[in-house]
Amino acid sequence: MIIDYTAVIIAYRQPALLAAVMNRLASQTLLPREVLVVDNGGTLSAADMAAMPLSDRVRLIERPDNPGYAVAANQARGTASEAVLVLTHDADFDDALAAELCDALAAHPTAGAAAPVLRWSSDPERVFSAGGYLTAGGRGGHLTAPRAAQPYPVDWVDGAIVMYRTSALDGIGWISEDYFLYFEDVDTAWRMRRAGHETLVVPSALARQQPGAHPMYLGIRNMTLFARTAGIPPLRQAGAVLRRVAEESVGGLLRGRAPHPIQAWRGWRDGRRGVTGKPEDRS
Asked: Around Cβ 124, how many Cβ atoms within 10 Å?
């Protein structure tokens, strides 16, 4: 049984959200060995941490340059814990979450990651992600209903709330820092699968999140970067990109938003060129 984990919370300029996540962690039936709060906004202090639950096991890591999800999650590299629970600062989860995910990893020795079914915070009856699928062209999508009542394998899971087996992360060199904001979770699960580790969704683990819109540039760039990594043929990947841009543009128009074909083209171009990391024009 896995009974030892480190929690990593990726915080960005919203201390009230961070405080709520800390309270949820403190209410877990299985407490973390250590909590790493990675401050990607540069707005937190040691005094802020001292006023929160679990302050005796919190370590604040300041990254005001906002290097992104992967750099923050990789701060746990070298931990002695058997598992790492990565949480974004808007994660909402029930008291048994950590225990449920640890139990799933323990029951499936080949599993490298386990995650809950995510529901919308604004509409808790509605499923946002019951795991992810990956198309032949390298496009990731979310399942909107659980496939089974018991833990089941998927192509990838949303990075908002995910428990990784530390040894599985060690085996793939941890989370790739080539991406920024999106596709780290797809890439990590893909590389784990190639190393012999499946990714699981645990339907009994209850959690919620409110996803935001993806900037077209980063969505397309990161998708194209992944296609290079996965060896997807350029024509097949370009077709997947065109379909995604068309669908998202139509959806945006129906909601009163202008399409962004130039951003999509720039993303595809930069992905093909191998441009990685945080874009210079983002704060």
From this structure: 11
Which H/E stretch holds residue 243? helix 234-254
Sign of the CA dihedral 188, 175, 32, 117?
A: negative
pLDDT tens, residue by residue, 152-171? 999 999 999 999 999 999 99
Cβ burial, residue 251 (10 Å; 0-12/13-18/19+): exposed
pTM, to two decimals: 0.95
Taken in order of first residue, the domains within the chain and their CATH numbers are: 5-209 (3.90.550.60), 216-273 (no CATH)
How is 120-143 classified by DSSP, letter by letter? ETTEEEEEEES-EEE-TTS-EEE-
C-beta of residue 152 within 8 angstroms of C-beta of residue 200: yes
Q: Comparing 135 with 3, which gets the higher pLDDT?
A: 135
Handedness of CA 8, 14, 18, 20 (dihedral sign): negative
Which amino acid type is present at position 55? S
